[in-house]
Amino acid sequence: MRIVFAGTPDVAVPSLTQLARGHDIVGVVTRPDAAQGRKREMLPSAVARRAHELGLVTFKRARFDTSLSAEIADLQPDLGVVVAFGGMIPRVALDIPRLGWINLHFSKLPEWRGASPLQHEIMAGSSVAHVTIFRLVEELDAGDVLASKASPLGAHETAGNALNRLGDEGANLLSTV
After folding, report:
1. At what angle do helices 46-53 and 13-22 cross, to 10 degrees?
2. DSSP strand pairing (58-60 vs 41-43)
3. Domain edges within the chain
4. Predicted confidence band at 101 (pLDDT cuts at 50, 70, 90)?
5. Secondary structure tally for the chain: helices H, strands E
6. d(CA 64, CA 76)
7. Which CATH number describes the domain made up of 2-174?
8. Less packed terminus of the chain by CB within 10 Å, N or C?
9. What confidence tier does 112 reach under pLDDT thresholds 50, 70, 90?
């Protein structure tokens, strides 16, 4: 299957890696290089680094605009996959892949929509974290749920540790959809 992947941080890398094993990743969309560390050195995102290692065509954009949508359309993807991209996919781009777009979300939907959902789920006292895969629609985190998996949280597990673990679990779940 021809897939366009959109993601940025470390947590998205396992999904990109997993998808690249069994599919043709025709393009990767990620955020532009950003100042990081004490020296504020301009560095590529974790997804940009992994895409480079895999030899994939990469688009570094702050937002998904009309010109990027046209470039994605030229790739003729069958499916779009989003994992922590950091921006909305506009209506014009939602219609490009033949099978639409799916998103790996790091919490239970529809209960925990929006940014930082895992952190909010933990702050609410949940003893379980979730990964959810759903179809993208114009409304934020509102598409049909395709798969979901619950995972117990350790008594002293931080949101950061849980997110790293859920990145791997989400990649495995993504490979089943």
Report:
1. 30
2. unpaired
3. 2-174
4. very high
5. 6, 9
6. 17
7. 3.40.50.170
8. C
9. low
